[in-house]
Amino acid sequence: MSMQNFAPEFETPEQYIIDITYIIWEEGDVGRIHDWYTPICPVRSPHGVMHTVDDMVNETLEQMHVFTNRLPLADDVIIGDMSSGFYSSHRVRSVGRHMGDSELGPATKRNYQGLGIADCVCRDNRIVEEWKLRDHASFVRQLGLDPVAYGISLGKDNPKAYAIGNKAMRHRWVDENGLTILGDKAIANRMIDTYDALWNGKHLNIVAEQYVPAVRFEGPDGHLSYGREPVSNLVASMMASLPDGRFEPHHLIVRQQNGRAVRVAIRWTFCGTHSGFGRYGAPTNAPVGILGISHFELHDGLIASEWMVVDETAIYAQIAAYQEIRE
User: What does pTM read for this prediction?
Assistant: First the structure.
């Protein structure tokens, strides 16, 4: 894979992503963000969009104040070739301790660990665009907070930020060129068909066909399970809350390397109306846009491991914001 127009100390895309994260966070050289992000760099999440590198610097400093020893440890980096630069999907296992007062409340001095994924477009030694997700529900729960109440407070305190509607929420996650596939298209299309059958077709039995019996599955709010049944149960509970929801894939990477399982990264949305009893409580008819990124490892073509990152505090915030505006 070519590293044309990248600094010579970065020999591979994986090294670039891991090293700049280490230098910024573990060595504390926050100012290097100006070197590795373009001045205008949209960073999108379910909670909003940052537009400039200065926004990124300020957010990083705030995070360091609240979590003085945060370590964003690389779980995996899935790379996709582009005609110019590369696309990375970086799965991060963050560990640290809550040591600073913030909007979360007084410092609890509690330890936490959490899962997140950041997708980045990298070109000419810089990140030019980013989509990031964190399992915020699990994170706030470890600090002793109720993620449902926390999400509701976000929506009530700032309804204009969350009652933006599904079209606008979905727009944050789409690729400007439509569905983009980097890597083997046959594998990518099989993964799309699996998620489409599960989420859109409601064919829960697809899990028995496309997942290994002992599949390892990580999902929202710190969910960790082994076996097929918990996968279909969790997805069914999410679909029950949004019975008219539609799954849509926006970006896929299929990464094939010698000596490693085939890995796949999918950035996707599931948008609908909160009109059913399910994972997200009594129906409110609020529009809800779920922004997701999933990683997979395949063994002999079947899904052996899945990491599904969804920020459920943003879902509760959308529901509460809709109710706040309606009142």
Answer: 0.96
